[in-house]
Amino acid sequence: MSVTKEQVLSALRDVQDPDLHKDIVTLGFVKDVQIEDGEVDFTVELTTPACPVKDQLKTEAEEKVAAIDGVTAARAKMTASVRTRGGFGKQEIPGVRNILAVGAGKGGVGKTTTSVNLAVALAKQGARVGLLDGDVYGPNIPQMLGVTGAPEVQGEKGIVPPEAFGIKVISMGMLVPPDQPIIWRGPMLHGAVQQFMRDVQWGELDYLVVDLPPGTGDVALSMAQSVPMAGAVVVTTPQGVAVSDVRKAVGMFRQLNIPLLGVIENMSYFACPHCGERTDIFGTGGGKRMGEELDIPFLGEVPIDTRVRAGSDEGQPIVDAAPDAPAAKAFLDLSSRVAAQVSIQNTRVLRVVQSD
Ligand SMILES: Nc1ncnc2c1ncn2[C@@H]1O[C@H](COP(=O)(O)OP(=O)(O)O)[C@@H](O)[C@H]1O
Ligand SMILES: [Mg+2]
Q: SS3 for 164?
């Protein structure tokens, strides 16, 4: 008796996506089932190429299908199509599926470093990524990515964002000479951010990462009012004093109705480059505890590494320059956790919309 498509789908119903808490058939991930004699080929289309459990799902799916009577080979092809939560009455940026903010609170905790490495890490995993420097007063992104020079402006079509490390980038630092102070009033700031969203040719993007400036949340507010936000990532350091900043940031995102994707603890510990020994300079576990207390996911910790700082200064993000360094691995890991959280939030929204 030959193997049927129904048998294959039924076997795949036993494979659960651990983040979305549903089986991959119900989630609509299984596509293009081909059966020839006992050989089964099928596609599993995930919600992000940066899925942290991609390999696990592939193995499990192939094992389940291989266990069907009469199957001699089972091959899953893993692909991804990043979904969007939709506009909810706000004007989407055409082609841009998910806008993610990285914030907030005081300067120097590593927001920009995280934005840059997160964006490059997502692109390395196959996503189409843009990076918008929301810090119009103190734009650091051009330096951190080594992008100098003004972007091309193509008349009606708008501003062409330069590309670096596989991502599209825009920053006020590309438009204003480096040593010229930038003095803005509130409405101008709103205008600049709006222009970056609307007048830049982003094209098709799975993720647009927005690096938020330190401070009061003007940029977050301006964005939340005008475009649908997929979520926000909060960056903190382990010092006790950072706790109240995070609490404020979380409060702000909640007030703006921006889903919280999670908290990252940066400069978490020092790993000795010689012996690898870990020193918890500021204590340990603060980010995790904070996540629990505030009921938001803890996305991971990034160690202090001089290569992170040097890479930033030289326009060489560590995830690209030294991908095997513990700090780079940490950024890569947490980028897939961020992507997973976006998928979780989007699935949650879709479910609400469907059940209405
Ligand atoms: N994990 C890290 N290890 C070493 N230096 C870091 C790390 N994260 C950030 N830095 C450095 O700390 C400084 C502040 O980081 P930055 O990303 O600009 O912070 P923010 O955007 O929050 O103001 C920069 O010089 C950066 O290179
Ligand atoms: Mg910054």
A: strand
pLDDT given for residue 339 in this prediction? 97
- In ligand 1, the atom with minimum distance to the C-alpha of 235 is 22
pLDDT tens-digit profile of 76-106? 999 999 988 877 777 889 999 999 999 977 8
Tell me the CA–centroid distance for residue 110 and ligand 1, in Å: 4
Mean pLDDT score, 177-198: 75
Structure-token pair, residue 112: 């920009």
Q: Which domains does the chain have, with CATH numbers?
A: 5-80 (3.30.300.130), 96-355 (3.40.50.300)
Q: Higher-confidence residue: 221 or 41?
A: 41
User: Which ranges constitute the DSSP H helices of 17-140?
Assistant: 54-66, 111-124
Ligand nearest to the backbone CA of 281: 1
Name the residue among 249, 183, 265, 188 with its Cα closest to residue 217: 249
Helix extents (H) in 125-241: 141-145, 186-198, 218-226
Interatomic CA distance for residues 42 and 57, integer angstroms = 13
Question: What is the rounded CA–CA span in Å between residue 125 and residue 128?
Answer: 9
List, chain by chain if needed, residues with CB within 6 Å of any ligand 1 atom.
107-113, 140, 214, 266-267, 302, 304-305, 308-309, 312, 327
> CB-hemisphere CA count at 13 Å for 233?
36
Does the structure show a pLDDT above 60 at 74? yes
Q: Give the residue-averaged pLDDT of 335-339.
A: 97
Q: Whose CA is nearest to atom 8 of ligand 1?
A: 110
| pLDDT of amino acid 272 | 78
pLDDT at residue 327, rounded to an integer = 95
Ligand nearest to the CA of residue 267, numbered in listed order = 1
DSSP E strands: which ranges in the chain?
A: 16-17, 22-23, 30-36, 39-46, 73-80, 96-103, 129-133, 152-153, 159-160, 163-164, 167-170, 205-211, 231-236, 260-271, 278-279, 298-304
Strand partners of residue 263: 234, 298
Q: Which ligand is nearest to the CA of 138?
A: 2
